[in-house]
Amino acid sequence: MKKYGVFVCLCYSYLVTNKDINIVNFANKAPNFATGPKKTPTKEVAKETFPMPSERFLSMTAHEMQVPITTLSWNMERLNKVLGEDAVKQDIAKILKRINEANTRLVTLVEDLLNVAKMQEGAFLVAKRPMQLVEVVRMALRTSEREVLKRAITVKWSADSGQIPLTIGDPERIYQVTVNILSNAVKYTPRGGTVTVTVRKTREIAPANVVHGVSDEKIKADYVVCSIEDTGIGIAKEEQVNVFTQFFRGQKAVATDESGTGLGLFLVKKIIEQHDGAIWFSSREGYGSTFFFTLPVMDPYENNNNNAKNSDS
Fold first, then answer.
1. Cβ(120)–Cβ(282) under 8 Å?
2. How much is the pTM?
3. pLDDT of 83-93, one tens digit each?
4. 279, 293 contact by CB (below 8 A)
5. According to CATH, what is the number of the domain 129-301?
């Protein structure tokens, strides 16, 4: 049995270290929420330079990967020892659970690092098409069900898909945004807390004090806004300016047992900016946070044109 455990470890190491294999493909994929024809992906990210000191990058990567990899190795060794024994099913189940948790943490880390690397290279692609944000958010909620139940979190959900217009965006990328924000809300909310998710229409991209890259003539227009509110640990006022920067994690977040790369919200902001939207938050330490993001409503004339083209073809 031991040789099979070693084989699994070697395969896993190969997947993690081989630059030609995208480990993200081994994670669960978000389904297609599009309501219109899929378009060819285009490079929507400007070839922007993201400062990333190599020493800090390597230090952070080594530190964050050390714990899950060590956990994988140690539990695999234990698994090799108990596979041939009797009455050990419960022990095996516990070991496999720990391996799975470490694996999930490692995959998330690698996925975040790969996405940042793609942004640096101008290769982070989005495929915009008509989509219903309500359906994307619902799937993100279903993805989070296990953690919600595990932590006894109450989730309140409010939206009427019949009243929410279509937006233009990449459903998989917006799913990624929603899952990241929702995951943070659940992780940093104490047991028995509440997370409230809403989707509604609005007539402006964001409050006047929010920085975004949308031109002045598009500020007052039709948008759909998603808000995710929690009753968690909140973010200290002096730390809030750094929330969307690379590798940032608040002191309270670091003090918890929850893992994180400090890259999630950085990526989330870049994705929303690619979609001509805005993202912002309000937070009070010890009381919780609310994150908002907006997406522009699809031009109905554009949808009619697309339908006409599809019928002609």
1. no
2. 0.70
3. 655 555 667 77
4. yes
5. 3.30.565.10
